[in-house]
Structure formats: C-alpha cells, structure tokens
Amino acid sequence: MTEPPAEPRDDAVVALRALARRVAAAGRLDPPATDPWLASVVQTAALALDAEAASVAVHDPATDRLLFRAAAGPAAGAVVGLSIDAASGIAGYAFTSGQPIAIADVQADPRFDRTVADATGYQPGTLLAVPLADERGIVGVLEVLDRRGGSFDLRDLDLAAGFARQATIAIRADRLGRDTGTILAAVLRAVDAATPERDGDPASAVLDDASIETLVSAATTDLADTDDPIWGLADRIARLDTVDPELTELATEWLDALLRQRERTTRGGRRGSARG
Predict the structure, then answer these.
(1) Cα dihedral 164/168/170/176 (nearest 10)
(2) CA–CA distance, 137 with 95 (Å, rounded to integer)
(3) What is the distance between the alpha carbons of residues 204 and 188, in angstroms, rounded to a whole number?
(4) d(CA 105, CA 111)
(5) Class of domain 36-178
(6) I want to staple 45 with a disulfide (CB 3.0 to 4.6 A). Which of 6, 29, 88, 163 is the partner?
(7) What is the rounded (10 degree) CA torsion for 63, 69, 71, 77?
(8) Cα–Cα distance for residue pair 192/212, rounded to 1 Å
(9) In sequence order, which residues have a C-beta less than 8 Å from that of residue 132 and are 6 or more positions away?
(10) 90: how many CB neighbours lie within 10 A of its CB?
(11) Using CA atoms, how far apart are residues 94 and 119, in angstroms rounded to an integer?
(12) What is the pLDDT of residue 214?
C-alpha cells in the first residue's frame, strides 16, 4: 500500500516560497525579447509564402499587449521589441477574434494601425494575419506581409496556419520552461539526486513525484493570486528598462526608503509588544 506524501516541513516551504516569488518576478521583469525557434518560423513562413516580411507577436497577459518577438524582412531589427495594444490593428483583430484574415489593400483597411509601420518605416501593401492558437487559447499572432506574386489567397492562409501551429508550440514550450512550478520541481529533483544516502538506505534520498508536487503546491499557492499588488509593482518595474537611468535610480532610492520605513515600523511594533 502506497503511503500518502508527508506534510511539507514549514522551513522547507518558506525557503521554496521565497525562491518561487523570485523566479516568478524574474519572469515578469525580464521577459524574453526574441527566440531562435520563432525566428526560424517567421523566416521559413516568409520564404514559403514568397513574401517580403513576416513577424510573430506574443500576448503578454500582464500588460494586455502584443509583443513582437521575432521578425523577418527589411525592418526585422526594428520590429522586434515593439508592442501594441492587444486589440489594436489587424494583428489585434486576429488575436481578439481568433479568425485568420487576408488583406489585399492594407493602407485602405480601417483596422490598420500605423504604430508599427511608422516606427519601422516599413509600409505594408498586402497582409495576412493568423492567430497562434491551440486548445488552451490564443497566445499571439503570425503576420506575413507583401506577397510578391500578388494578394494572399485561401491556400496561403492554410499554409500560414501550419506555421502558426509551430509558433504556438514554441511559445507554450518557452512558457513551460519559465513556469515557476516547473522550475521548482526541477530544482527539487536535482537536489534530491545529489543528496547522499542516509544510513546506507538508498530510498532515504528519494523525493517521489507526490512529495515534490506537495512541496511545489505549498510554495506556489499564493502566486496564483494575480490581484496581489506585488505583481502590479513588478510589471511597473519591468517597464523601467525603457526609462532614463536617472529615473530608474530615483525609483530604486524610493523603494529603499520605503523598505527602511517598514523595518522601523516593524521594530517599533515589536518593542511595543515586549513592553506590553
């Protein structure tokens, strides 16, 4: 009979929770700007569809924006790193509606948002946009621009859908690799594998899957609360990388002052309790 996993020790959960919050915050503070696999997908899509350019924009739930993670074509370097509102433009239409779309005259389409075109200097003529979707939802958009042989047709949309599936798989895999619970479980398995046997008992060094799941669950429970103000703060700090360095330093000094005030308040409360 298999015994249920032991209750996690408080000190282990505290340590894991501290690590979990740092891992989760790091993922929000330093999202990947580009991805080699996504880059190969857009390059191949542009080649297969005989198009001038292509791009993949990935949805960031924290900001509700589409971030361009990979691009191919004349303005590729300028496109990567840009972001637009998730409901903006033709890409936003494909993302929010979940419908692929082909546009024969982009400049005349009322859904066209000039933000990216003006930022990069590349003005598309024809365009197709395909949502990056699977059974779990929509994670972004694949766009292919300016087919050399004329407008995009239904066959092109079908072909682009195949590349969109590849991009979706790559994005899901990337997010899984950065998932806090996955990282903690991998750390626990690595630590357990390096733990020497105790009293000559090989089983004593083993953390089974159930025990690891219990520990990870206990450490990440509070991370599920997306309304926690700490994540709003993390999202704002993440955007400081585009701000003047002096303003970033000012924000750091303000946070340090806030922490010092909290420490003084905590110490004062403890002294008051001791006198009482």
Answers:
(1) 180
(2) 10
(3) 15
(4) 11
(5) alpha beta
(6) 163
(7) 90
(8) 10
(9) 56, 58, 138, 139, 140, 141, 142, 164, 167, 168, 171
(10) 21
(11) 21
(12) 76
Among residues 187, 232, 235, 231, the alpha carbon closest in space to that of 31 is found at 235
Half-sphere exposure of 129 (CA within 13 A, CB side): 24
Chain length of the chain: 276
The structure tokens listed for 154 are: 């239904």
Region class of 98: left (phi > 0), else alpha (psi between -120 and 50), else beta: left
Angle between helical axes of 10-29 and 209-220 (0-180°, round to 10):
70
How many angstroms separate the CA atoms of 173 and 183, rounded?
A: 13
Give me Rg for the CA atoms of the chain: 24
Computed from CA positions of residues 72, 74, 77, 83, in that sequence, does the dihedral angle turn out positive or negative? Answer: negative
Is the pTM higher than 0.85? The answer reads no
Q: Within a 13 Å sphere around the CA of 111, how many CA atoms are in the beta-carbon half? A: 20
- Which tokens go with 91? 């890409």
Mean pLDDT per segment of 10 residues, for the chain of length 276 residues? 50 62 54 68 92 93 88 88 91 95 93 88 94 92 93 92 89 64 65 57 59 70 55 59 67 79 72 58
- Report helix, strand or coil for 166: helix
Residues 204 and 187: their CA atoms lie apart, in Å, by 18
DSSP annotation string for 48-92: HTTEEEEEEEEEETTTTEEEEEEEESTTHHHHTT-EEETTSHHHH
- Cα–Cα distances (Å) from 31 to 23, 70, 135, 178, 183, in that order, read 12, 14, 24, 10, 16
What gap in Å lies between CA 138 and CA 203, rounded to an integer?
A: 44
| Alpha-carbon gap, residue 115 to 196, rounded angstroms | 58
Contacts of 180 (CB under 8 A, 6+ apart): 20, 23, 24, 27, 220, 223
Domain spans of the chain? 10-29+181-242, 36-178
